[in-house]
Structures are given as C-alpha cells and as structure tokens.
Amino acid sequence: MFSRKISLSLLLLLLGTQTGITQQAVTAQTPVPPATTTKSLCPAELRTSIDSAINRPLFSRARWGILVKNLASTQTLYSHDAEKYFTPASNAKLLTTSAALKQLGADFRIRTSVYQDADGNLRVVGRGDPSLKNAQLTLLAKQLRQQGITQVNNLIADDSYFQGDLINPSWQWEDVQAYYGAPVNSLILNENAAVLTVLPQAIGKPLQIKWADPTEAYQWRVENNSVTAQKDEPGLVEVKRDLKGAVLYLQGQLAVNSQPDINAIAVFDPTQNFLRHFRQSLAAEGISVQQTSTASGGNNEREIAAIESPPLSELIKEMNLNSNNLFAEALLRTLAHKQQVAKNQNTADVGLKVMQETLTQLGVNPNTYSVVDGSGLSRKNLISPDALVQVLQVIAASPEAKVFRASLPVAGVSGTLQGRFRNTSAQGIVQAKTGTLKGAISLSGYIDSPQFEPLAFSIIVNQSEQPASTIRQAMDDVVILLTQLRRC
C-alpha cells in the first residue's frame, strides 16, 4: 500500500529526534563531483538517438511527451508531443514552487500564534505551517510557562485559516489513507501522519505494532490479521486505514528473522490530533488544561506566544527534494491569502487561481496546463512538457532562480534523485523534479553540461503497462544522452 519512501522528517519522528528541515536540506545539497565520460553527441544526432530509446517495442502502448530547449534561448533541440496534455504526477510541484516564490518571497515564514482572553482561555491559531512538529509545541508551551501560566480553562484550536476540503475530492481513496495523502488543514502537526513499525514476533503469532508516538495506540482500533512466518519466508505487509473512522487494518506476513517494516498513515482528525499533542506539551511544562474545544475566528488582539516556520526557501526544499505533497498543498493554500478569501470560498481553489495568475504574469501560457491541486497527486491534473519547460525557463531568468534551483534534487546526490544517475555523465550536473503515479512517470529540470549550453527539459510518460523502474531507466537513458551533447 505504502510503496513511496517515507520522508526523512517523518523518520526523524520515529527516531525521536527533531532535526529541522533546514539542516536536512543543506545536507542533501552537499556537492559531489560529476562522473566523467568520454562519449559525446552532436545536436544533429539527438533526434535519432532519443527516438531509438523511446520507440522500442516495450513502449508501444506508452505515451511519451518530451521537450528539450536551450535554457537561455528559444532553440528547441528535441520535441515529441510536447504540446499535448499529460498527467504530470509530482512535476506539478514546479508550478506551485514558482508561484509561491514569486508571490511570497524566499524569506516568507508561516506563523502559529497563541492568544489569551480575559477568562484565561487560550486560542491557538494555525496558518498552515506544514513543518510544525512536537518540538515546536514544546517551545510554545515553554513560552507560556515563562509568562507564569499554570492553568488553562479552555484550550481552543482555531483551524479556520484554510477553508474547504481537507482532502482534494479527486484524490484516490488508497492515497488518502497514506501519509502522502494526509489531510491539509490550518493546524498541521507531524505532517498529519502517524508513524508505526511492524515487527515479527514468535512464529505463528500476529505481527506487533509499535507506534512512534505511544499515545497513538489509544487512538486507533486495530484489526490485526497478520502473522509471523517461518525464517527466511518472503514478507509482505499491507497497512490500511478506514476512511470513516480511526480503524487500522493490518494484514500480511513477515519472517521471524526479518527487519521491521516502517509505515505511516494519515491521521483521521488533524485538529483533535493537534489539540491532544499540544495538551501533552503543556502538561510536560506544568500547565494543566481543563478542557479543549475548536472554534473559528476570534479576537487576535493579545498574542502571548508564537512560533514561525523555517523560511520558504527551506520549505520548498522539503517539498521538492522529498516530493512532499503536504508541503505543496499547504503552500498552495497559503497563496490564497495574497487576496481576500470569502467565507464561502474553498481556499485551495483561490490558491489555484492565484497560482495561474502568477504564472501568466511570469510568461507561462495558461493554455498549456490545467491543474486541480498543488502537489500532483490528482489524476485530473493535465500539464504539457511545453508548460513545464516554460516554467523552468522563466524562473531561471528571474531573481528567484538560485533559490528555485536549490530546491531541486541533484542527480546521484540528493532527494528523490539520490539513487539515480550514479556513476554516469549526469551525476552532479542534472537538477530535476521527479514524479510518480501509477501509469504516470515524469522528470523535468535543468542540465548544466560542461560541453554544451545549459538545457531545460521535460519528459513525461503516461499509459504504460511497464514497471515504473523500466520507464525511469529509459528516461535516464534520454537524460544521459542530453548530458553528452557537445558543440559540433
């Protein structure tokens, strides 16, 4: 069920550490010298070489969309159905990143505030900080304790900054159970996910569940139909979450000598999840809470505690390096507040409008794409390779170029490209955003070849029955060809 790699920030929760995303992103950008190559390719040979790679019999049913352009000019080096619509998967995050940088600025931070009224009630107002973790709740609790607060009559969660659906209605049901399809609200905590480890026990016994946060055990009803198998038996664990309640389904098996299996699921009620954890943080600082509740709106005159997210430049690194859907969706909704949001409006819809207007102002043709979310998780998103290359080109020519580039995975070095292109001519000189959905694989970004002009490229494959690994390898072959271009 959860085939996607759990992000580093979620794994840090499991390990009990609270390293910030700033530190993680900087580490991921450590440069590695590119691999050397003796091969070279003239531009006139490029079409024949790429056509040979994508027109093999195993791709006879697949739809390929490819566009390769000189970054600084209008010269097209290769094009194949580049103007047609494709399901882009997480390449849609390139649009969200560009609009967020342009509208909000690299130094923008998201503030979470605590207000106090005359009756001793505390109201926590969230504004959609996707990086908020337990450690930040501890900081808030310490600020309150330092002001002499030892008792709270009512701890109120104001989760109204983002309005409308917590989950995009076009997302598939199997995605919204998983951490990568977690609900998006104003008071996000721990990426609105619960991390659990499944461990073998004695042979024949059900597998054991160990929660990263032990209190999660009291929040879920578990239907455990798993078993511990004989030594060296193949293992497969499936974890599902009920869509209507906090019920967890576990089935499958692990061998008695197998390694633990780490999973993460979306929390069922993110607002109550926030309240529960904040109450625990307050208790740890000696602050008792009589009751908790939720409310929308209120008097924001007396802010007594606050925390801020890392700057946008760091948030987009987590979003693009680890392809974090929650970060993308939160930033899309944050864009909505660049204009007035009416009470009856869906914040995500307003964010999409702001995103399109921003991209149009940058010079991206609005007729080259049609998107319904900020992350690319929806199968209703339609983007052409032409649109993605336009985005890459206009941002490369903007003041935000350096920050934008720093958020992208580096081939063979960081993020979702860390394990790809190693020991090839692409290592260290390709920066690109990956994308994966069932039946949709994408890769778009930049190539800084020492033998040729800088390039912008987009490759999308839809409707293939081949394994994702096979498609990625063919994509990588195309990109490696591009890195071998030289002036002839």
Give a written overview of the molecule:
This protein has 488 residues and is α+β, with helices and mostly antiparallel strands. Among the domains are: 31-106 and 313-483, DD-peptidase/beta-lactamase superfamily (Beta-lactamase, 3-Layer(aba) Sandwich); 195-262, no CATH class. The protein is built from 13 helices and 18 strands. It has helices spanning 8-15, 21-28, 43-54, 93-104, 134-146, 173-176, 270-284, 312-321, 325-336, 347-362, 385-396, 401-406, 468-483, and strands at 63-70, 76-80, 111-116, 122-125, 151-158, 193-199, 208-211, 221-229, 236-241, 247-255, 261-266, 288-295, 303-308, 369-370, 382-383, 430-437, 440-447, 455-462. The strands form five sheets. A five-stranded antiparallel sheet has the order 2-1-18-17-16, sandwiched between helices. A five-stranded mixed sheet has the order 12-5-4-3-13, covered by helices on one side. The termini are far apart. Pfam families: Peptidase_S13. Belongs to the peptidase S13 family.
